[in-house]
Design brief:
Arc Repressor Mutant, subunit A; Nucleotidyltransferase, domain 5; 3 domains; five-stranded mixed beta sheet; 15 helices; 44% helix; 23% strand; ROK family transcriptional regulator; ROK_cs; WH-like_DNA-bd_sf
Length: 387
């Protein structure tokens, strides 16, 4: 019995260890007494676990503030250099690899071209070699503190197995990305869809920090979605929850690349619009700015269907905030110009003022930071799975 009791106490202590670490990450700066108040733990228990976190170099003290009764309270925050994560973004436009701190800062990165003529296994083997080169550049002091490797990629991915079912852009099917990379590298690898990693990154480091119930609509060469409930990523039965790009909005509409008619992405994503008008997307928006009728109608149509999609998502998920992200949103602001008015026309009246429309804060490194956020999110919730 004493052995079992000790074992249980150890697991509960581990749970509290990661719970406090997660709260410090969420609040950015917080005192021991505030942590005790939030968790209902005793000040003594919090103090002991914070000492462990500081000994493990995961938490540091960062000055003091006035306490509730005039006493100075020492503030705690995540030590950005306490551990590191390797983030990888696989896109048709190129592959990014970076070493990222626990606070989402890139300290070193490498870029390489995505070569579509190479097989998936060739690309992954070269990626593994490039990761090793990057780790060699940052040195042993950083290598010893690497938690894991996160990979962000478009397409359908199984979770947590990390097997890629299909990426139309790459013409890859049924590839064991996690297994292949873990054989080449002495690290745990996490793999997920790029829309989820974008939402995770903004939730941990960016514009979605204050929203526990949230949705991301990502518009680029395709359309994707992701949703979080009470701070946890929703995945669905086959990790495909949020694939709103193939939600039918007009059964008599244009043929989608999936073979069906009138999917959302046929109205709003760059590849479908380019296919319909046989012009680069930059030209479409430039012509719209010049008020050429054909282009104005295309952009207005895209905005209308985006408004419809947002209103439908609000009815389905009832989020506090909707993150509008992706190249189409960030490179062509005309798409989301006055989007509030479009949403207002279609959203169900009881939900009209229940949400915020939000845009990303993280810049050009969002892919690798998102991949690192995938690892950090799993690291912080590790004990919840264990208990």
């Amino acid at each position: 019995m004493p052995l079992n009791l000790k074992y249980d106490q150890g697991r509960i202590r581990k749970y509290h260890y990661f719970m406090l670490l997660s709260l410090i990450q969420k609040h950015k700066r917080i005192s021991r007494s505030q942590l005790a108040h939030l968790t209902k733990m005793s000040n003594t228990s919090v103090g002991k676990i914070i000492k462990e976190l500081m000994n493990d170099e995961l938490v540091i003290e960062v000055g003091q503030t006035e306490g509730e009764v005039g006493r100075r309270a020492t503030l705690l925050e995540i030590n950005p250099n306490g551990s590191f994560i390797v983030g990888v973004e696989l896109e048709k436009s190129g592959i990014q690899i970076a070493v990222v701190t626990l606070t989402g800062d890139v300290i070193k990165k490498r870029q390489l071209a995505f070569e579509p003529d190479k097989s998936a296994h060739q690309v992954l083997d070269e990626l593994a070699a490039e990761i090793l080169l990057l780790l060699n550049q940052v040195g042993n002091a950083v290598n010893e503190k690497i938690i894991a490797i996160g990979v962000s990629i478009p397409g359908l991915i199984t979770w947590p197995e990390g097997r890629l079912l299909r990426v139309p852009q790459f013409h890859w099917e049924n590839i064991d990305i996690k297994g292949r990379l873990e054989k080449k590298l002495d690290y745990v690898v996490y793999v997920d869809n790029h829309v989820r990693t974008v939402l995770l990154a903004e939730s941990l480091y960016g514009s979605m920090k204050d929203f526990n119930d949230s949705v991301c609509i990502y518009i680029g060469s395709g359309v994707g979605g992701a949703a979080m409930l009470d701070g946890e990523m929703l995945r669905g039965h086959r990790n495909t929850l949020g694939e709103i790009g193939h939600m039918t909005l007009d059964p008599h509409g244009t043929m989608c690349d999936c073979g069906r008619l009138g999917c959302l992405q046929t109205f709003v994503c760059s590849s479908e619009i380019e296919k319909q008008v046989q012009k680069p997307i930059q030209e479409v928006f430039a012509a719209s700015q010049r008020e050429e009728d054909w282009a104005v109608r295309l952009v207005n149509r895209a905005r209308t269907y985006l408004g419809l999609a947002i209103s439908n998502v609000i009815c389905i998920y009832n989020p506090q905030a909707v993150l509008l992200a992706g190249p189409m949103v960030q490179e062509f602001p005309a798409l989301t110009e006055a989007i509030d008015n479009e949403v207002d026309q279609y959203v169900w009246r009881p939900l009209k003022h229940s949400f915020h429309l939000v845009y990303p804060e993280i810049g050009r490194d969002s892919g690798v930071i998102g991949a690192s956020a995938l690892v950090l999110n799993e690291f912080l919730r590790y004990s919840n799975d264990e208990i």
